[in-house]
């Protein structure tokens, strides 16, 4: 691989923000100098750091239900030890996902009242289209009910049986759509992404040698596109550098292959570029996002993440012929090409959410809250994926529960125990999520066996993060008491959503 010219990076965070020493620090959270002028009767103030706070205030609250241990034991048993099958009313702090769980702003709620629910040609669609074109830079926009709707349409128009899709680590729904269309996903992410302890600042990078080797092996004609995610969810929310994106683009141009971006958390990726690549310290998030997308030919998007809404997504393309084909398919699977499965009010909320998502103070606080929780766990020597990612903390279940073999689903067991301990719902990202090889029927055994603590945007307070950290520490202290699980029900597709488990003692 080409060696990147990256700034120095430390896993230690500064007031919730990973930054290089040369990065600008906003006035509101700047450090106080070691020695300041002081009156004669006062000693000089010691060196310290000021606290930072979220750039919003709370206007509406939702009461939470606090359950007893006995109630949680019944609930998790009824759910087959699968946190997806818990009732939300039985959950205290819900860190299952950041998908569709954000708190919308007063600006977005006001937009909801301006929904144009016309079946065709809603004005809200044109508002959404304008915002995507402005901030992401793509020419043609096809709204969908959420990201997987866009993945389905993209796979049908581009992938043929026998094709190969190289990418920087799989994502569950993306890979399934590729496989259902007859394609095979090929992981070309750098090796550091599979090491939870590696401090590489851009573990989402594509290994350029792996990519070119794949192209030379299968032939460019059998690669409909290179699948790029920013950030990489299954690697721990790890970002991709602008330098690497640019190099991948140059390879794609040389071979005549498209690049399709999973833009779900591309704003968070832009934040890490701003913090960790020297050339981008003084650029805005909006400018970085626009440049990153310019190295791609289209994107799929779940607006339920970065765009701060509860439902919705889109497929964006620059090729007019592909757009024509996709806009025809959206009518079959989603809805008319000017609403694509969304109400007008939802499109307006998403258009306004896009505006808010690229504001530097918003994304700094969003990632800062994640880093706050992660740093507490690091300080307490609890094994997590480092560097801390943009949307979640990932517990390293292999290191957390080394006595439970991967066949007995240690990450699934750990997620269940966190719920039992404090009513905190998290998600398994390991062998269960990886699924089975469609040819052999054997489990995939990923190197990463993780539990994801996903932080919804603008929802929880610092006190919730403190409680979560304390619950994780308590489970870690008592980890030797935990048994493994056995799977007693397995769905055909995406089994992590609906599989059921029962307690099982580890193999002696």
TrEMBL record:
InterPro entries named among the record's database cross-references: ArAA_b-elim_lyase/Thr_aldolase, Beta-eliminating_lyase, PyrdxlP-dep_Trfase, PyrdxlP-dep_Trfase_major, PyrdxlP-dep_Trfase_small, Tryptophanase_CS, Tyr_phenol_ly
Single annotated GO MF: tyrosine phenol-lyase activity
Ranges of biased composition (kind: Polar residues): 1-21
GO BP field: tyrosine metabolic process
Keywords assigned by UniProt, alphabetized: Lyase, Pyridoxal phosphate
All copies of domain Aromatic amino acid beta-eliminating lyase/threonine aldolase, residue ranges: 94-470
The keyword Lyase belongs to this UniProt entry's keyword annotation: yes
Required cofactor(s): pyridoxal 5'-phosphate
E.C. code: 4.1.99.2
Residue segments, region Disordered: 1-50
Residue positions where N6-(pyridoxal phosphate)lysine is found in the record: 305
Recorded catalytic activity of this chain's protein: L-tyrosine + H2O = phenol + pyruvate + NH4(+)
Similarity field: Belongs to the beta-eliminating lyase family.
Subunit structure: Homotetramer.
Protein's recorded name: Tyrosine phenol-lyase
Natural source organism: Chamaesiphon minutus (strain ATCC 27169 / PCC 6605)
Gene: tpl
